[in-house]
Amino acid sequence: MGWIILIGILVIVVLWYVLTYNNFVNLRNRAENGWAQIDVQLKRRYDLIPNLVNTVKGYAAHEKEIFEKLADLRARAMGAQSVKDVGETNNQITEALKTVFAIAENYPDLKANQNFLSLQEELTNTENKIAFARQFYNDVVMQYNAAQQRIPASIVANMMGLTQKEYYPVDEGERGPVNVQF
User: Fold this and answer.
1) Taking CA atoms, which of 39, 69, 135, 147 is between 20 and 30 Å from 88?
2) Residue 37, SS3?
3) Would you state the pLDDT for residue 16?
4) What's the average model confidence in pLDDT over 54-77?
5) Considering only CA atoms, which of 42, 49, 48, 54 is closest in space to residue 79?
6) Which of helix, strand or coil describes residue 16?
7) Hey, what's the signal peptide range on this chain (predicted)?
8) HSE on the CB side for 45, CA within 13 Å?
9) CA–CA dist 144, 141 (Å, integer)
10) pLDDT by residue (tens digit) across 8-25?
């Protein structure tokens, strides 16, 4: 009778280990998929930036500084390795793009240019997709990190050598209150 109880406990422990291990694999893969989705949208954004800059340059050639800054940020973002670096450089790109669109406000012919309008719309769509992908990634990272910290699953996480994943950082400017003026 004692052997049956011991075998039963052993089967339960093995099943728990397998289920916990598979849960971590699933969460890790979902986090990696979330990051890949962000990467796809960022690549799309990087491809749109030179077209936008070239279109705006034709109208505002003397605004050279912002175009150089945007090109530098794009190169830095494409070479960034960590989640933190990718997030921070892309937040800076967002700010630079806002400046480019503000510059466009000074050039009525540019604002009416169909190519510019098309690029502006594509960038807006891409920004929305990046925001959605970032939210998905951060949600999965939260689940992944929380699962690693829970007892007794933390034992399996330590056996697998898992480490906490970084969240995609939010632009500091987005944390502040929104100023609405009428």
Assistant:
1) 147
2) helix
3) 96
4) 87
5) 42
6) helix
7) none
8) 30
9) 5
10) 999 999 999 999 999 999
